[in-house]
Amino acid sequence: MKTQHKPNKQQYAYQVIRSRILDGRYPPGHKLVIDQLARELQTSAIPVREAIRLLEADSLISFKPYSGAIVTPFDEQAYLETLSVLAVLEGFATAESSTHFPHEKLEDLRAYTRLMEDALDELDFSLFSNYNKEFHKLTYQYCTNQFLMEQIHSTWERLGTVRKQGTTMKPSRMKRSIAEHYQLIEMLEKREDPKTIETFTRNHKLNTLKAFLEEKPQK
């Protein structure tokens, strides 16, 4: 019988703080008070301080003069650059996956899309974003280029460090995104030309970027 190893105090603090940043409970700019976190996590200040240093290395936390540790503010330029790269990578991976995408998995794609519709109805943008990510992970799951898959994973990780709380999409774009998901499902079902699928998937991602730029306040 294998022994389950519990994370040490530093690892536990790191996991808790990281999850709260990524799910939006600690939004960009949120100040982290070490003593308060230590009391909450029932540990000393040292593991919390070490965890914060690790999160700083992950670019999730920054140090601001006179404020101390804060959740890294939204980096618009990094977001635009990262999403642009993700559009290219996911487009190619989805095209590669499409040639042998199992038809029995199409219903899973429809299920994720319906869950996105439900999340939009409830205005749960964080949940919408999570289902959107799972949808796309499934579309390129059958890509056999492992290096490409690793690059997509690392790009998603980077996107997680620069995004706003929840999703950067507005409800109008989210509704169009759902419609595009149904179009992509139909293309996979019909086994359309991989180049056509690559272009569609890339533009689907870039449409989100375009909508973000169009909807941001003009200076």
From TrEMBL:
Claim: Transmembrane is one of the keywords in the record: no
One of the Pfam families matching this protein, by short name: FCD
Keyword list, A-Z: DNA-binding, Transcription, Transcription regulation
Sequence ranges assigned to domain HTH gntR-type in this UniProt record: 7-74
GO MF annotation: an example: DNA binding
Xref: Gene3D superfamilies: GntR ligand-binding domain-like (1.20.120.530), Winged helix-like DNA-binding domain superfamily/Winged helix DNA-binding domain (1.10.10.10)
Domain of life: Bacteria
UniProt xrefs under PANTHER family: GLUCONATE OPERON TRANSCRIPTIONAL REPRESSOR, TRANSCRIPTIONAL REGULATOR, GNTR FAMILY
Record's protein name: GntR family transcriptional regulator
